[in-house]
Amino acid sequence: PDTNAVLDGLIAILRESSPVMKQAATNALGRLLGAANESGSPGADLASIRVEAGDLIVGGLNEADLDLRLASMGALGEMRYERAVQSLTDLFTYHKKGPEAMAALDAVAKIGHPGSLPVFLAQLDHRDAQVRRLAVEGIARTGDTASMAQMKAKMDGDQSAYVGHALAFAKAWYKLLHRDMG
Question: Ramachandran region of residue 42, left (φ > 0), alpha (ψ -120 to 50) or beta?
Fold first, then answer.
């Protein structure tokens, strides 16, 4: 019963003007709503709170404060908030490199929306191993069989330890997804 009151309080903080308070609420909401999302189907109350909080956090992507923007990207990824995919993808495309680009791509990879597959596949040739790692993880989270095969063929010779770990994650995630489906 106290969960909704806590979430409502955090959402109220998102509407305040202090970037530090907004960042703290954003981080807390990302973790709480991400954990709730992982634990199964949320009830109608929690689903509507998630949308309200998620949309406010998407608004944080446009804040002047860099730390708040990065926290917003991280929270949206933790929440796997699909309504943010286009905004996050646009930020990645706009920045191309640096902390904002990486945070945006990380969030998109954590969300793992099938509509992001072209973005992920395009990054498999990127010179930065961290970008390739995120692309592999994003493809894995979509569970798309054709893209997984394409990724595996392209990435098997990659020498980066980051990519190697991501490929191991992708293999395990794919098996888990398809075991649950079958």
Answer: beta
